[in-house]
Amino acid sequence: MIIPKIEVEVVDKNGKTLRLEEKYKLHKNPVALHKAVSVLIFNKNKILLQKRALSKVTWPGFWANTTCTHPLSGEDYKTAAERRLKEEMGFSVPLTEIFRFTYSAKFDDIWGENEYDVVFRGEYSGEVKIDPNEAESYRWVSLDMVKKDVNKNPEKYTPWFKNILNLL
User: Fold this and answer.
1) pLDDT tens profile 81-133
2) Which residues contact 160 (CB under 8 A, 6 or more apart)?
3) Interhelix angle for 143-152 vs 159-167, to 10°?
């Protein structure tokens, strides 16, 4: 697998950029706090979830929110969210920021997360065309059902998505 060199902005607890660091190096434990975005797409009372591709270094094959990424150096959060939604799920919709939070999680002895995450929401009811390099599959599920399943089977979901659900 060829890993592109992408620089991510390391930030303080208020989201102020401190420096740039290469994405994959940055995700090795201990992980510095860095910028991230998460997108939630709804169709009435259902949320679009993705199952992360097995090629991902953190949480491969886990269920997560519609899409997530890191803003590119100098890219604002909303532009990053819009870009990644189109890249991963094959569609574009207007997005609205709904909240920000920080979290950290250790995937294994090597990899982890420590993110200043800006969460966006949108509405969509059309065709989904996932990028198989990013998502293994997707599903629409009611918010109540996914909350029940996360409580019953937390090991199937990414830590950031579980945090997002608690904040909704």
Assistant:
1) 999 999 999 999 999 999 999 999 999 999 999 999 999 999 999 999 999 99
2) 36, 38, 64, 65, 68, 103, 105, 113, 115, 117
3) 130
Q: Whose CA is closest to 105, among 59, 159, 33?
A: 159
Q: Which amino acid is at 55?
A: S
Catalytic residues: 68, 115
Amino acid at 66: T
What Cα–Cα distance (Å) separates residue 131 from each residue in 25, 34, 157?
A: 24, 24, 19
Handedness of CA 120, 55, 59, 8 (dihedral sign): negative
Residues whose CB falls within 8 Å of the CB of residue 23, separated by 6 or more in sequence, listed in order: 5, 6, 7, 8, 70
Q: Which domains occur in the chain, in start order? A: 7-167 (3.90.79.10)
Q: What's the chain's length in residues?
A: 168
Q: Which are the contacts of 69, defined by CB distance < 8 A and separation ≥ 6?
A: 36, 37, 80, 81, 83, 84
**Residue given tokens 């992408």 in the structure block:** 6
The structure's pTM equals 0.94
Q: Do 51 and 137 contact (CB within 8 A), yes or no?
A: yes
